[in-house]
Sequence to fold (164 residues):
Amino acid sequence: MSARKGSGAAATVSIRVPPAAARALARLSRHVERALDPLDLSLPQYRVLSLLHDGSSASSALAGRLAVSPPSITAVVDGLVARGLVERHADAEDRRRLTLVVTPAGAQLLRAAEDAVDARLGEVAKYLEDPSSAAAAIEALQQWNHALDAFREEKAEAKAGRGK
Fold:
């Protein structure tokens, strides 16, 4: 695999991600799902609530940020709306467009979900070979989050450039 360091203008650096690291991410994902189960919240619903909590958005923008198809987002959002966790509002500038907003109940559930995920992953972290490396492991995950955002943005820009 190759990755870019910094902006799209930066040189390409070859990075090999061992299969065990990819499997660890998949396993961590399963622990997040298990933490959410008692709250009757799926991982896709958690991801949507998390992004919406950072600011209201349209379904198409969410689909792009989550790297899924718009129909997939619509199904997840429909479930959140039905539970009163998200509301759809007509966009003030374009009434054909709907903006998604987390309700107070959605924000409360998101806080509970974040606490549950923190507790679950905290339990797992107790088994790190070197417990003093927990902060570095968390920082590494935050760096992956940043890399995923940068990757998505660069791909969207490239796609937009081809569309012109």
